[in-house]
Amino acid sequence: MQFLCKEYQDGNPRVRGLVTDTRIHLVPSLNPDGYELAHEAGSELGNWALGHWTEEGFDLFENFPDLASALWAAEERRLVPHQFPNHHIPIPEHYLSEDAAVAVETRAVMAWMDKNPFVLGANLQGGEKLVSFPFDTARPSPPTPAAAPRPLDYEDERPELQETPDHAVFRWLAISYASAHLTMAETFRGGCHTQDVTDAMGIVQGAKWRPRAGSMNDFSYLHTNCLELSIYLGCDKFPHESELQQEWENNKESLLTFMEQIHRGIKGVVTDQQGEPIANATIVVGGINHNVRTASGGDYWRILNPGEYRVSARAEGYNPSVKTCHVLYDIGATQCNFVLSRSNWKRIREIMAMNGNR
């Protein structure tokens, strides 16, 4: 925060462009309870677990509703996308009840996500040095038919690795951070606790590394428009004060590069023929089975890798509109606006209902 403010005032063109063209939200600490505990022990007496949980015993990162399992169950019943959406999946009612085991911090973050149309996000953690991206949840293996014989080398059933429809985009975003970091891609040193789990890239899909349900990243992806990743900054979760300057230098370029990735892909506004914005219109990108919605002003952003895409905009009561949008290699989202015309289907249904569907 200090860096952005100082460099902006000093006229740094890169920072000025970033601050002027990007709405940046920064949360210094999601778990102040844990920070207090870690601060009391200090760098020398702390360990990876100290400060991980809130005072009530919640691991906030894993305290979100498990929407991935709900999506996969609906897919197996062939309900997606006509009866069950592939995006903006609603929060289960039992999770919202007052007596549900949900931390007050988690409820606050979910309300914050619903209020703001976030596009790109990162949560900063410690205990490892890598970038992790969704899915964090491992998909259960399909049940084996009772009559099917098990092979002799049968092992315990292992969950299969399910990639998100935006797997290539997530990999790009993760690499943009890890490759710009001064030491994160030096995986020849091994990991903090084991050998390198990132295939010498400094990045890993969460479910491959540490499978867990109800993560903040999976929730962001399936309930909002936001692509969110976890950035593990180092092995020491509470570095000594003398080490902080070097930690800043390690991550400074990565933070800037990562934030700049929000301007990669397509953006635009969806309006009706009178120029009025259409909120909650659905933006569908051909070949990527995950849609996004327009915000209250009819505006949308969709991070995409370079290429040519067939994009359509759809809204209740309107005819869909389709166009081809080109994403270039240079930073700067391609403008793709849509104008939707009113549909006659609502009137047709009314006439059919009046005439007994004849």
UniProtKB/TrEMBL annotation:
Keyword list, A-Z: Glycoprotein
Any GO BP: protein processing
InterPro entries assigned to the protein according to its UniProt record, in alphabetical order: CarboxyPept-like_regulatory (IPR008969), Peptidase_M14 (IPR000834), Peptidase_M14_domain (IPR050753)
Residues in Peptidase M14 domain copies: 1-262
Gene3D superfamilies: Carboxypeptidase-like, regulatory domain, Zn peptidases
CDD domains: Peptidase_M14NE-CP-C_like
Coiled coil: none
A GO term from the CC aspect: extracellular space
Xref: SUPFAM superfamilies: Carboxypeptidase regulatory domain-like (SSF49464), Zn-dependent exopeptidases (SSF53187)
Superkingdom, natural source: Eukaryota
MF term (GO), any: zinc ion binding
Similarity-based family: Belongs to the peptidase M14 family.
Protein name: AEBP1 protein
Lineage, highest ranks first: Eukaryota, Metazoa, Chordata, Craniata, Vertebrata
